[in-house]
Amino acid sequence: MTTPLPASSALILAGGRGQRMGGRDKGLVDWQGEPLIAHMHRTVRPLTDDLVISCNRNQAVYRAYADQLVGDADADFPGPLAGVIAGLKVARHAWVVVLACDAPLVDRALVEDLLRAAAANDRAAMVRQGGYWQPMFSVLPRRVLPVLEQAWAEGERSLQKALLRDRVQALECAEGDRRLSNFNSPELLQG
Q: Per the domain annotation, does 75 fall within a domain?
């Protein structure tokens, strides 16, 4: 018997500078005829009634894909940790799925596996691939917000390092798992 999934919010991080994309907003870059955010939306929408997108520009476009929009508290694109903090502050559920906007091959099974791992162990769950943590594929309890805010206040800017201040359950994935592909450069979008 499969354990039921906990109610969760979904946070898609689309607030980056897009340096490797020539400054383009990665979530709005086309892949297979649609913006990357549309692929992410299609995967997570059936899993939540609270889809939050962290974006620092193009809010009018992103609004069509989200229940809530957030932006970083600090200007100048401070990184994914800022986006996660902003998203956790508004999330309506105790569990929050965190994904990057440039991972259109992520599937529902991976998200559900992360949710089950987090709920079963009552702590954050994060993909670990070949011994490396992948914070852009994680499920966080909202109660981790003070830990992340403290890390930020102490000058930490790495999402991975901030998350690992607390206990994290690993979801092991094979090194060649295509679902974890980040399409963060124009060359990768050609595949």
A: yes
Q: Which residue's structure tokens are 């901030």?
A: 162
In a domain, 34, yes or no: yes
Helices vs strands, H then E, count in the chain: 6, 9
Both tokens of 1, joined, read 């018997």
In angstroms and rounded to an integer, the radius of gyration of the C-alpha atoms of the chain is: 15
Partners of 129 in the β-ladder: 132, 173
**SS3 state at 140:** strand
The tally of domains found in the chain comes to: 1
DSSP 72: -
In this prediction the pTM is 0.90
Q: Which of 87, 179, 79 is nearest to 140 (CA)?
A: 87
pLDDT confidence of residue 15: 63
Residue that has been written with the tokens 């689309």 in this structure: 14
Residue 2 lies in a domain: no
- Residues in the chain, total: 191
| Domain of residue 73, CATH code | 3.90.550.10
Across the chain, which has 191 residues, the per-10-residue mean pLDDT values are 84 68 71 90 96 90 95 70 95 97 93 96 96 95 97 94 95 93 56 47
In a domain, 100, yes or no: yes
